[in-house]
């Protein structure tokens, strides 16, 4: 299977190269030139309509985001401004009494040009903090700047329609003035919020000092990856110490604020970090290897601890970047050996084996509700990864895997990685799997789960506990499921089986399915049948998840973390 990156469609490349703006501008320029040259009105209006339509069509993809985004406001400014004056030139037709129409056109053109300023003000009015009395501001706008583009577009359409109908020119002025109200609201509201943020910035260090935080959580990741933080927050809160969360990505601020009652602060720039350093702060926890972690790791008097957001044999799990942290909390000895086996030297004292506290809710052993001859199997494929060396996804053969499970009378829980849709080919395969499950659920009355039910209603732990077996690939899902001691299969993608077993030791406890599907029948039969790898799984469980008693399993993490808070 090829792992070449998806380069996008012709339309995507066209837009990326600003071809959409060029096309709209050329049509608008042609319309204005035709109007000034006294060409047939229908020619001018046709060119103007095409140019204006282009601005609408190319921005239609932003329609779902209007309420929470600045886009598409501030786009196609030249094209829309020229269209307004081209239309005005046609309908004025030299009539000196049409000056109110020209005034309306000037106001509309000013609104379009002013979108650039409104966009910059709206982008500058970013959230500041949540759950932090004394340094709180209103984090959301009264009116979304994203709506300005469609409002101005509608005003231009109404302007042209009224002019075409020969309506009194005064009506055109009223349309333009009405359209100005939202823009003024965004500008005034944005300026007030920016001033409020600056005021909060002046006191935030003092407010934090009063709370005496012992540790901070630094998190930088795009929207859709909140699970990285969500998996650790309940355990960090169990440390019973004052802390706050630093969020670097504006798109995740609101969702993070809903995850915790601890203070959450949006700090986008490196210069924003200094204000977070207060005398009581001792330790900082991290959940990924984001580049901007270095903005906070640079404070040497603090202890910087990497928790990571899952333990697996993937290449990112032995990234040399881990060496920039003072401590690396790992689930078991497997994580330590993984660095050494790939030539990444990390001093032994950097590691602390703390288990995976997130698995404490996973039931161990066979399900009491398991139906003989009709097992429930969780299929949880990973995503394509950022690079070819981290693309372990089994989705290219996922359809055949799920079809094989259905042929064996299995009920399937399908839970793909949250990033699956980032790869169009994988997204298409995922939709095929969902469609097959939907059809089989109707035909067989089996209670398959997919979509909202499997990906959001149930947690990953709920999915584990509802399943008798797992099919996955190289991801943190497999070591976590290992805690249950239930059987699992792994897809071997793009590498020989012998190398796969060497690179990914946990595969020794898995039933393997090769990318050519020659072993799919044998793998699935063993998975839901005799299960000869039961003892192997039990042995690897300690190696991957630590030799930690089941009772109070999470205490290993809590105890080790508290050592760095004293």
TrEMBL record:
This is CDP-Glycerol:Poly(Glycerophosphate) glycerophosphotransferase. The chain crosses the membrane at residues 12-37, 43-62, 74-93, 142-165, 171-192. The lineage of its organism: Bacteria, Bacillati, Actinomycetota, Actinomycetes, Micrococcales. It holds the Pfam family Glyphos_transf. One of its GO terms (cellular component) is membrane. GO terms for molecular function: CDP-glycerol glycerophosphotransferase activity. It comes from Cryobacterium psychrotolerans. Keywords: Membrane, Transferase, Transmembrane, Transmembrane helix.
């Amino acid at each position: 299977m090829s792992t070449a990156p998806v380069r996008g469609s012709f339309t995507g490349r066209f837009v990326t190269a600003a071809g959409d703006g060029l096309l709209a501008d050329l049509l608008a320029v042609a319309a204005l030139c035709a109007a000034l040259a006294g060409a047939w009105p229908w020619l001018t209006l046709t060119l103007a309509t095409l140019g204006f339509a282009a601005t609408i069509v190319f921005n239609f993809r932003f329609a779902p985001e209007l309420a929470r985004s600045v886009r598409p406001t501030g786009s196609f400014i030249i094209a829309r401004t020229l269209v307004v004056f081209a239309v005005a030139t046609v309908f004025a037709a030299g009539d000196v009494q049409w000056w109110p129409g020209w005034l309306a056109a000037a106001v509309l053109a000013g609104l379009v040009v002013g979108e650039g300023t409104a966009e910059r003000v709206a982008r500058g009015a970013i959230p500041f903090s949540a759950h932090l009395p004394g340094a709180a501001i209103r984090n959301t706008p009264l009116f979304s700047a994203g709506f300005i583009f469609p409002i101005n577009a509608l005003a231009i359409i109404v302007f042209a329609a009224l002019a075409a109908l020969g309506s009194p020119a005064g009506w055109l002025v009223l349309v333009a003035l009405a359209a100005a109200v939202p823009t003024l609201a965004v500008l005034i509201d944005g300026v007030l919020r920016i001033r409020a943020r600056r005021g909060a910035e002046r006191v935030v260090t003092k407010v934090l000092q009063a709370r005496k935080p012992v540790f901070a959580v630094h998190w930088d990741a795009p929207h859709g990856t909140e699970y990285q933080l969500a998996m650790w927050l309940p355990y960090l809160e169990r440390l019973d110490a004052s802390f706050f969360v630093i969020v670097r990505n504006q798109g995740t601020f609101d969702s993070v604020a809903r995850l915790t009652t601890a203070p959450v602060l949006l700090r986008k720039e490196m210069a924003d970090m200094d204000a977070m350093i207060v005398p009581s702060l001792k330790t900082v926890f991290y959940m990924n290897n984001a580049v901007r972690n270095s903005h906070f790791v640079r404070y040497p008097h603090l202890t910087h601890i990497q928790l990571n957001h899952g333990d697996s044999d993937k290449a990112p799990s032995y990234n040399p970047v881990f060496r920039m942290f003072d401590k690396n909390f790992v689930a078991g000895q497997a994580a330590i050996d993984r660095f050494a086996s790939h030539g990444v030297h990390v001093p032994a004292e950097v590691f602390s084996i703390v288990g995976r506290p997130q698995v404490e809710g996973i039931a161990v052993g066979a399900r009491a509700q398991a139906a003989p001859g009709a097992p429930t199997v969780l299929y949880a494929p990973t995503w394509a990864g950022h690079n070819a060396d981290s693309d372990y996804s089994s989705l290219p053969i996922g359809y055949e895997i799920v079809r094989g499970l259905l042929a064996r009378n299995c009920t399937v829980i399908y839970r793909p990685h949250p990033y699956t849709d980032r790869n169009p080919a994988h997204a298409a395969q995922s939709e095929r799997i969902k469609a097959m499950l939907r059809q089989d659920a109707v035909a067989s009355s089996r209670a398959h789960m997919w979509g909202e039910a499997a990906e959001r209603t149930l947690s990953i732990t709920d999915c584990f506990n509802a399943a008798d077996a797992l099919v996955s690939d190289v991801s943190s899902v497999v070591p976590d499921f290992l805690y249950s001691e239930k059987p699992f299969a792994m897809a071997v993608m793009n590498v020989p089986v012998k190398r796969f077993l060497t690179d990914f030791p946990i595969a020794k406890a898995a039933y393997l399915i090769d990318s050519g599907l020659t072993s799919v029948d044998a793998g699935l039969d063993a998975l839901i049948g005799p299960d000869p790898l039961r003892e192997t799984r039990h042995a690897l469980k300690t190696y991957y998840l630590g030799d930690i008693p089941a009772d109070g399993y999470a205490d290993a993490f809590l105890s080790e973390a508290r050592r760095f808070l004293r």
